[in-house]
Task: structure prediction
Amino acid sequence: MKRAAAVIALASLALFGPRLQAEAHTTSTGLATLNVSGSTVSYRLILVPGELPPEPARLLASAADGDPAAAERVAAELTRRIIVRSGEVRCRPGRAQIQGSRLGDGRVTLELTLECPAPPARLKIHDEWFELFGEHYRTIARIEVPGAGAREAVFLPDAPETTIEIGREAAAQGAGFFRLGVEHILTGYDHLLFLLALLLRGGRLLSLLKIITAFTVAHSITLALAVLGVVTIPGRVVEPAIAASIVWVALENLLRRDAPSQRWLVSFVFGLVHGFGFASAIEPLGLPPARLALALVGFNLGVEAGQALVVVLLLPLLLWMRGKPWEPRVVRVASLGVAAVGLAWLVARLFFAS
Result:
């Protein structure tokens, strides 16, 4: 039974905590804006090099600092990775610019002007940045068309292209944001570790369902409030708080002999904090209200779907081990591992965050 306990504990940690790093999400996001004016398309992409793999991060930082060779290479990548077509004819890339942020937040902005042969009736946009920035990179884009409002698109490795019909009403594009929400929770190891720590000592089925529901309701509330701009909390506050919530619940598992009767309340309170973390995926896009509502619904449904998938996989195992003589060992080993990971994230986010 000791061997079974160790196997279950290690399996849980292997599933939820495989990457001990300051950023608990493996995905990185670029925020793009495309403005169509006559036959000219202006492209602007904002990146955070610290979220990207080391080599392209160094290249972008050097280009932003004025290194001519790096700037030339980034400009070449920019004209290569972004392909815009008017109908079936490719628009000609023109001047490319790279600049760092004046706010000292480490962001880099890439700009490119493209000239189409005529004002486009149908615009095709192809994004290939993931080939340079890795398979976990995503671009969230806002396409602004005079007289037709703004459209949103999410570019993914297996869906790198979108088509915009100029002059037609924008169709609901919630599918891309739904997928983004699923990926955000499945690669959000901090959120999943917190959920695991909650459920380890969550009690029987009814108690577990209360915990899951409380977490869902809470993070949905703050996700909406943050994205709609009602409440704003800086990431330098939210990210350490998320790590602290993991440590808190894991230590509670270790120090308490009985299952906490009000754990759903702990789930709700800390779920409010985690909602602000979810908001970081779409909050910076600055979507207009009508589009923002669609994006928010799609993204939140994706988060819930990803969370439900994890719970469906984990719940039978947790219910099966309830009452087993070796269950306390499993809880202790898994909670120690979760606490260690959470503490490492907490220290990194407090003292080493860029």
User: Anything to note?
Assistant: The chain is about 55% helix and 20% strand. Residues 4-23 have pLDDT under 50 and may be disordered. The two ends are 45 Å apart (CA to CA). Strands lie at 28-37, 40-47, 82-86, 89-90, 92-100, 108-115, 122-127, 137-145, 149-155, 161-165.
